[in-house]
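Changelog note: in this version the structure field was regenerated for every chain. One regenerated record is shown below for reference.
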Amino acid sequence: MTGHRYGYARVSTRSQSPETQLEALHTAGCVRIFTDHASGTRADRPALGQLRQVLLPGDTLVVCKLDRLGRDSLHLTETVTDLARQGIGFISLAEQLDTTSPAGRLVFGVFASLAQFERDRIAERTRDGLATARAHGRVGGRPRVMTDDKLTAARRMHTEGASITTIARTLSVGRGTVYRHLTPTTG
């Protein structure tokens, strides 16, 4: 990569100091460092957002440790994969991971494969759990707004000439819900 190196430092609280990270990032040749004082679980990290706006193809994002950038392996993999799609490299100093080199891309590819495997396992467990719940008579999702009693009342009111707005207000449901249940579908 021929662009600039930009650093990202993060500490979880205001009482913690990012100085050690800042020193390491300066030593690594970062031209600018963005620092957040926020938990890694927060998606809204302002400095990280600003950094993502500055990065251009050919640039490299540098962190001291992987956990400074991502809250878990799935999030981290998605972030670094997104950077790679944009032509932006990634370096983690502690783990000696450098996606600007062939060996670093290989190692990251293994990380990405493991993260995809974990996503697939989570999806499989979710499907199995939902199937088990259905087998025991439980249905997932939000409760239906338009119950059978409300639908009967809506049909009666509609037949008697009540407006959709009046029906919706009376039954405490949205107008769209009333339309969906009273308008015949074509197929």
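Spot check on this record: The longest helix spans residues 102-135. The helical segments are 19-27, 46-54, 66-69, 73-85, 102-135, 148-159, 164-171, 175-182.
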